[in-house]
Amino acid sequence: SLTSIDLPDGLTEIENNAFEYCSGLTSIELPNGLTTIRSGTFGGCTGLTSINIPAGVTSIGSSAFLGCSSLTSIDLPAGVTSIGNSAFLGCSSLTSIDLPAGITSIESGTFSGCSSLTSINIPAGVTSIGNWTFSGCSSLTSIDIPAGVTTIGSSAFENCSSLTSVDLSDSLTEIGHHAFSGCDGLSEIVSKNPVPPVASESSFDDRHYMHCILRVPQNAVDDYRNADVWCNFAVIVGEFGGVGDVDNNTVTVTINGGDIVVGGLKPGEEVKVYNLAGQLIHSGTETTICSLPDGLYIVRAAGQIFKVAL
């Protein structure tokens, strides 16, 4: 039944699990001298809606806010360098959080089950993303993996059902089991490493292999097509301009009476058309491509990639 508490300014330490399961606690002001929020300190405080973390705090322990299902936002001070396992697991009302630049790893289960989380900024200094870190973050729509991250743990983004795109950095070397399993909305994967990262068959789902567009470095297409796991992707494109995104405003791809019409090309520039199995079905300099059956196609022209439907 504890609803509030005043902590003295001289307090520098609060022991593990001190306020665990204080479900009536709605807010608390932490003293400025505090440097650590220990393991389980506010675990199960289901009524906690907000908390002010003082600037001197440098670490947040494992399960520190586990199950704080009413917590909608939290500001982490710039000095925080360590966040423990499952620190925010089950904070189902948390919509956004900015991680300080000093964080170097995101531990297992840190944000698992944060089903209202729509965005998160991963600092450039992070080198690893642990197991189950974002699993069940069903409102997360996109994620950029910063340069420097070398590993993504097992089930790290499992069941992130609203995730539509993922950008993997050129430093990534390993993707764990089920890392993107259950990401039913995923339609585009960018892998910037010219050496295909080590992954397992279960890192992605069968629907990803059939329906996602995998974009890789231009000179690494064959390496991805011959690499374990990555070879399962039906469409592998050696471009980073984006499907449907046009950097050269003079180039257009339109549909006219069932024909694909490419405009704005220089004389002699080649047009290539692929089906969704990644097979080249047309190559030439003509700008009108006729007699293709109805379906989805990838058109490459003047260094740009377009997705069209007939």
Molecular structure report:
Helix 1 (206-211) links the parallel strand 14 (188-191) and strand 15 (213-215). 35% of the residues are buried. The protein has two helices and 23 strands. The model is unreliable at 241-248 (pLDDT under 50). It has helices spanning 206-211, 221-226; strands at 27-29, 36-37, 50-52, 59-60, 82-83, 96-98, 105-106, 119-121, 128-129, 142-144, 151-152, 165-168, 174-175, 188-191, 213-215, 235-237, 252-256, 259-263, 271-275, 280-284, 288-289, 296-301, 304-309. It is elongated. The strands form seven sheets. Strands 10-12-14-15-16 form a five-stranded parallel beta sheet. A four-stranded parallel beta sheet has the order 7-9-11-13, with no helix packed on it. It has 310 residues and is mainly beta. The chain starts with 26 loop residues before the first strand and ends with a strand.
Number of helices: 2
What are the low-pLDDT stretches, counting only 5+ consecutive residues below 50?
241-248
Helical proportion, percent range? under 10%
Number of strands: 23
Morphology? elongated
Mean pLDDT: 89
> Sheet bearing the most strands, described?
5 strands, parallel
N-to-C span: 64 Å
| SS-based class | mainly beta
Strands side by side in the biggest sheet:
10-12-14-15-16
The string of secondary-structure elements, in order, is: EEEEEEEEEEEEEEHEHEEEEEEEE
Q: Specify Rg, calculated over alpha carbons.
A: 24 Å
Query: What is the strand content?
Result: 15-25%
